[in-house]
Amino acid sequence: MPFVVTAPCFGCKYTDCVTVCPCDCFHEGEQMLYIEPEECIDCGACAPECPVEAIYQDVDVPTEWQEFIALNAEMARATPAITEKRAPLCEP
Ligand code: SF4
Ligand code: F3S
After folding, report:
1. Cβ–Cβ < 8 Å for 55, 15
2. CB atoms within 10 A of CB 70
3. Which of 4, 18, 31, 33 to mutate to test ligand 2, by most ligand atoms within 8 A of the CB atom?
4. Which atom number of ligand 1 is nearest to the Cα of residue 41?
5. How far apart are CA 55 and CA 47, in angstroms?
6. Confidence (pTM)
7. In degrees rounded to 5, what are phi and psi of residue 65?
8. CA 20 to ligand 1 center in whole angstroms
9. Which of 7, 43, 51, 83 measures 20 to 30 Å from 31, CA to CA?
10. How many angstroms is it from 35 CA to the middle of ligand 1?
């Protein structure tokens, strides 16, 4: 049951999440990050690190953001890995 990055990440990309992931699961798109579901070990370390609460386990993704489950799987494979924090797109 992998974790999923959802809508609040879009346009923000705080990237606090990438610094705690033990498996380097995060991939970076232009507007948001994605988790590679095949690599995620479901440790849960990333979710509390996100200042805008964008990360959920797939079974807990809110109804309106369900499409992000498939989007993470699709886009993680099409984008490069990110393992270091960067300046966010939005202001805190
Ligand atoms: Fe990485 Fe753990 Fe988050 Fe999965 S749940 S993306 S392994 S920190
Ligand atoms: Fe996005 Fe939150 Fe990580 S805004 S980049 S999921 S810390």
Report:
1. no
2. 11
3. 33
4. 7
5. 5
6. 0.97
7. -115, 20
8. 8
9. 43
10. 8
pLDDT tens for 8-37 read: 999 999 999 999 999 999 999 999 999 999
pLDDT at 92 exceeding the cut of 70: no
> Among the atoms of ligand 1, which is closest to the Cα of residue 47?
3
Q: Is 51 in the pocket of ligand 1 (CB under 6 A)?
A: no
For the CA of 57, the nearest ligand: 1
Q: What is the pLDDT of residues 55-68, one digit of tens each?
A: 999 999 999 999 99
Q: Give residue 91's pLDDT.
A: 76
- Of the candidates 12, 17, 92, which has an alpha carbon nearest to the alpha carbon of residue 56? 17
